[in-house]
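testing teh design pipeline on a random one, pls ignore if ur not involved
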């Protein structure tokens, strides 16, 4: 839909926003009208370089043609089917995901937070079914982010943040340990611990990659104790960190893994994969969702995954991500550059991240800030070194402008 064809001016549309829309996010002041590969276009034709990817979603580029055609094609056949129906996209996608990432069973959901709800629920039920009714506790990482529904929010190790403030009490049964600190995780586990749940790279928390030793240590500890190891790969999955799933590049397999964001090529779909043994925990009626495995979303996901695999986008993420992190060293005021593949964070010495993000938008570059002093970039995985060069010039300009205005 185009603003020019809507019968409203941009100003009138923003008045409608003020009147009717919950402002649950600090939105940009343009109306995104069109996407094309690495760029998005505002209503006035302004072009923005996308190093944000719709929050790590548009991995094959904005408005990928193959994904768009898959969506349009499926819409001619079945748009929605009930929980009781099989559809071809659902069946083929289940096979593709499980075989590609080496897991045995999948349950579809509609989003990342729901994929995590499924993972939390199955871990609790598995614990209770096998070890008794108190065996439902889950240890997650401090500074983690798992979503905004109550289970996933309770798993999120950020008790003082805006996402939890005012929503207490959280669900019982969660405790939080230091990320990348194996001993702290072991200390927080008790005889009633059913699962440990971590992100292989903490994204919203500030782009902190796990160490291989940490994940391997968790795996060994879980194997010794019978605790389940759960990975939240909602942000890191499907090519983002330089392998299909981040756990594949670490070589440390979980008992269950959640995913969303990139798999749908922009359509709302999430999923949880497990071993066949764990999957028996969910019998008919134990878990479900009206819209999950929606055929249009599954068709989009099939196209998105084919595109990621055939265009070798995880390999591209690895190579271009390494180049990006190298080029970022020319930015002023940098304390640390972190990341894995094309999930990249810059920590500044000063709390300038939100101002930098704002200035980047002024300079036609889309990024996000996740802490006062940390920005995060998650461009489409089709980004080239030339796009990185373009982004780094705009970023440097933006940081310099922020520092200058603060000095005035
Ligand atoms: C690691 C992680 N888990 C879960 C979520 C929640 O996903 P959704 O917003 O699709 O519910 C996010 C969203 O940013 C995320 O980064």
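output:
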């Amino acid at each position: 839909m185009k603003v020019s064809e809507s019968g409203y001016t941009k100003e009138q549309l923003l008045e409608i926003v003020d009147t009717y829309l919950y402002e649950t996010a600090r939105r940009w002041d343009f109306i995104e009208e069109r996407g094309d590969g690495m760029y998005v276009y505002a209503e006035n034709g302004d072009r923005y370089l996308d190093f944000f990817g719709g929050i790590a979603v548009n991995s094959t580029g904005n408005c990928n043609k193959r994904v768009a055609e898959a969506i349009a094609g499926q819409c001619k056949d079945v748009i929605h089917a009930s929980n009781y129906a099989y559809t071809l996209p659902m069946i083929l996608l289940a096979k593709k995901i499980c075989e590609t990432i080496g897991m045995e069973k999948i349950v579809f959901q509609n989003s990342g937070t729901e994929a995590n709800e499924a993972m939390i629920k199955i871990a609790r039920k598995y614990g209770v079914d096998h070890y008794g009714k108190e065996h439902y506790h889950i240890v997650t990482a401090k500074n983690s982010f798992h979503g905004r529904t109550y289970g996933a929010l309770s798993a999120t190790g950020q008790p003082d943040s805006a996402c939890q403030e005012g929503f207490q009490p959280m669900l019982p049964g969660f405790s939080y340990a230091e990320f990348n600190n194996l001993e702290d995780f072991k200390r927080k586990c008790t005889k009633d611990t059913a699962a440990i749940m971590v992100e292989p790279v903490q994204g919203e928390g500030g782009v902190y990659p796990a160490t291989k030793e940490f994940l391997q240590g968790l795996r060994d500890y879980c194997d010794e104790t019978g605790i389940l190891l759960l990975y939240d790969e909602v942000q890191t999955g499907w090519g983002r960190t330089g392998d299909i799933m981040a756990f594949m590049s670490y070589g440390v397999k979980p008992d269950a893994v959640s995913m969303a964001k990139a798999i749908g090529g922009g359509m709302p779909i999430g999923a949880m994969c497990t071993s066949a043994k764990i999957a028996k925990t969910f019998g008919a009626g134990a878990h479900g969702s009206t819209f999950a495995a929606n055929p249009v979303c599954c068709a989009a996901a099939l196209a998105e995954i084919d595109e990621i695999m055939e265009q070798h986008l995880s390999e591209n993420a690895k190579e271009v991500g390494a180049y990006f992190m190298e080029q970022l060293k020319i930015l002023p005021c940098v304390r640390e550059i972190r990341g894995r593949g094309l999930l990249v964070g810059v920590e500044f010495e000063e709390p300038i991240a939100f101002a930098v993000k704002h200035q980047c938008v002024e300079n036609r570059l889309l990024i996000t800030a996740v802490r006062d002093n940390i920005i995060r970039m998650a461009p489409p995985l089709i980004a080239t070194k030339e796009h990185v060069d373009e982004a780094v010039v705009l970023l440097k300009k933006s940081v310099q402008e922020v520092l200058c205005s603060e000095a005035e």
